[in-house]
Amino acid sequence: MIAYIDCIGGVAGDMLLGALIDAGATVELPDLGIDGLRIELGKADRHGINATTVTVKGAPGQPHRHWSSIRDQIDAAQLPSRAKQRAQHAFERLAIAEGRIHGIAPEDVHFHEVGAVDAIGEVVGVALALESLGIDEVICSPLPFGRGFVTAAHGRLPLPAPATLTLLEGAPIHGVDIPMELVTPTGAALVRELSTGGPPAEFVPRASGFAPTSIARRC
Known about the structure:
36% of the residues lie in helices and 21% in strands.
């Protein structure tokens, strides 16, 4: 089974997970060593289209987490082997990109409290959703990039965010005149790791799912 991701409005971890769940995937996060980790689902209407929203939550007071500790947490979780491999590889890409931007080793990259919880839940959730749907291959449309700036943990950053741009080196992208962040580092890491190519010339849809563009932040 092939999943085609049409990223007309960009991509983020929660958007991708929401679209997969909207297409029929079921996701139950295992014990990942994070207090209170859970996925909350909702619905949103965008121009008459009913879409699924996803919010990853955890208990307050989460610590900063390094890639090395996140890798151990995923490795210790009870996950199907393919889902575990997909999650580990996506996070590894993210850590390598962040490490390159900040000039540190990937193992030393730390993810801030909320960002770490969100990213872990989204990456593992997407891997489980693909497994639930029996997806063997993922293909993806070119990604749109807005312009301007976004406020992040390290301050005000240009768009596309440096880590996002690093993750998508060699991938097809196109610029749009929208002053918003349309692709997040987590979304970029997932599609870069999972996708094996662009849109097929011909295919027969078996299910479809929608998620709203929830990551746009005005600059």
